Amino acid sequence: MVVDQKVSYKYNDSDMMAFPRMGDATMQRDAVYEAWRNGKTGKPSQFENIGFMFRYQLSWMYWRYFMWNFSGRQNGEQGFFSWDPKSGNWYTGIKPLDEARLYNEDLMPEAMRNDQARNKYYMLPFLFGLLGLFYHFGKRKNDGLALMAFFIITGIGIIIYSNQPPNEPRERDYVLAGSFFTFCIWIGMGVLAIYQALRDRIKLGGVPAAALASLLVLIAPVLMGTQNFDDNSRRHHKASRDYAANFLESCEPNAIIFTYGDNDTYPLWYAQETEGIRTDVRVVNLSLIAVDWYIEQLRRKVNNSAPLKLTIQPEAYRGSNRNSTPYYNPRQTQEYNPNLDPEISAIELLKFIDKDQVKNTTNPRQAKTYMPTRRFYIPVDLNKAQQSGITNTEDSTQMVVDRIPIQLSPNKSFLIKDELAVLDVIASNFNDRPIYFSVTCRADKFFGLQEYMQLEGLGLRIVPVRTPAGLERRIYGDVYGAGRVGHEAAYRNVMERFKWGNFDKQRLYVDRSYAPSVQSFHLLMLRTSEKFMDIGDSTRAVNLCLKYLEAFPNMNFPYDFKTMRFLDIMVEAGAYDKAKPFMEVLAKETYDNLLFYGSLSPSDLENGFDQEYLMAMRTKDQLIAAVKRAGDAAFQKTLEEQFAPFQVEQEAPMLPGG
What SS3 state is found at 454? Predict the structure, then answer.
């Protein structure tokens, strides 16, 4: 077993304080701490740290979760800020109480009103639990204190100990389950409290009193069960498996695909290991590739996937070796000059890094090797590329390259182990196996290869064809707008291979964890549709738009500005008659939303619904404009009259990608 060096931090005395709470510098959290400090900047004071504990950690991250379980939940959205009335708040179902804390509910759109995750318990579990708590302390104080200690330690104690930072990647209510289970014991004791009151004060007989007390308190779990069933049942859900299969089906045979994070990786492994779907594809997880044992696993055959080739040997990756490989070129001056860096093959670079270049060091943290250049390239075997179909006769000689260049930023002074391993996988296998990044990866993992990528589905394939950054990159960003669209492969995958998880067939609860995948489908199908329009194939552009509207119906994915993008393409392609029924649904959804936004106070609108309001206003204008372009005067007049109350002189801003 390899044991690495342990690093302990030593802080300046001037930075020390009792009970610090705001100290997580990852994920740009400094700005989020400032938001919880009412915009104050600089070093937080002792008082502000304590205030953050009460406002965020105890109130927002404990009390809110507690009330989710025993009062009700507003929706399934993640709540980041207590002043946002839109997302993740606790709820009761008692209108005056909810409106006092949230917003006017009279004109809530149907999608909000019928949200399956909008669970109402009317505070009954909470009240029964309080009744049982007081009864317990009244009858057996010592037992009550013991249970209270357990309740506090597994709830507030965990909150204080874990010192949760703001804007976690997901809600963390599950870590407090022990505290919630404890409170349920008191709900059960509520039966005894009511039984005793019925027997002693109303003089009801023992059996009737017990039956009535039990029935009264059973209202709470029955409410919780019925309210929670539709958003917790997975009886008809197939999306995790289907969406995972879609990622795998986006790949050519014997491919390698890099994935990022739990939700992008484990479903793919399930699909392969349990259901035998595309076991020829090797899934490489970017969150694990920084550790030696996982890199070593890549060298093994898995199912029908052959071992990956790696240039750097196992010993060089083991333990703390190559945790950080610094850049060192003695020819460079203070002002970086890329021309002083030799341009070498990535394979040569990896072979150089594989060998220990620093000898006889006594410092255990000293890097054993270094990176002699920031300029290198992946060599391309053009014969293999042509045989595999990566390049074709449509590609000009200026676009096809015999080497894919990589130029690290002048600010990039080292490669950490995961970056080194990713480069090793790409360079060592590029000419033998198709290599993809899933579209849910972060762009900073791409080594700047966006101009050499091809969107073929839910994967971006590295190809020896340069597509200079253009309008697509500006509209879709560095991931979805990378490189070019492999429109034939993308169309085949979407129309013939992809499945939609039953969301296209039944009214089901769409958990927010599906959001990245849903966005991926949206942008893939939108960009591919636009590509077909660019090459004059309006038929297949319309087919993709209709497939999107079929796969993501209004019953599960309420229509909004994203839907309008596809309808615009259909109108432009001359398929207005096919688009109009969907436009009518979108018009109703947009009208209902604008009516609701208009009923909100300025503070509620600004703190929770400002973006949605601007998007709805823009969608309204785009709907009217599209109908006008199609020449449907009657429908245009209907829309103009319908949206007349929401017309403003100032034009709403452009939407992202619109």
Answer: strand
Please give the Cα distance from 271 to 277 (Å, whole number): 5
DSSP 76: S
The position carrying tokens 């688009």 is 579
Q: Map residue 344 onto helix, strand or coil.
A: strand
| pLDDT tens per residue across span 382-410 | 988 888 778 776 666 668 999 999 999 99
Q: How many CB atoms lie within 10 A of CB 26?
A: 7
Residue 144: both structure tokens together? 């009550």
- Length of the chain counted residue by residue: 658
CA distances (Å), origin 219, targets 74, 213, 443: 20, 10, 51
Please, what is the average pLDDT of the chain?
Answer: 93
- Phi–psi pair at 459, nearest 5 degrees: -130, 145
State the Cα angle at 274 between 270 and 279, rounded to 5°.
80
User: Distance between CA atoms of 410 and 412, rounded to whole angstroms?
Assistant: 5
Q: Of 60, 201, 221, whose CA–CA distance to 129 is shortest? A: 221
CB 45 within 8 A of CB 66: no
pLDDT band of residue 595 (cuts 50, 70, 90) is very high
What's the predicted TM-score (pTM) here? 0.90
Percent of the chain with pLDDT over 90: 83
Q: Residue 628 and residue 636: Cα distance in Å, rounded?
A: 6
Q: What is the 3-state secondary structure (H, E, C) of 32-50?
A: HHHHHCCCCCCCCCHHHHH
Q: How many CB atoms lie within 10 A of CB 216?
A: 16
3-state secondary structure 94-128: CHHHHHHHCCCCCCCCHHHHCCCCCEECCCHHHHH
User: Residue 367's pLDDT band (boundaries 50, 70, 90)?
Assistant: confident
Three-state DSSP at 339 gives: helix
Q: Report pLDDT for 364.
A: 66
Rounded CA separation 370/18 (Å): 42
End-to-end CA, the chain: 55
Q: Any residues with CB less than 8 A from the CB of 593 and at least 6 apart, and which?
A: 109, 560, 612, 616
DSSP per residue over 273-325, as a string? HTT--STTSEEEETTTTTSHHHHHHTTS-BTTBPPPP-SS-HHHHSTTTTSEE
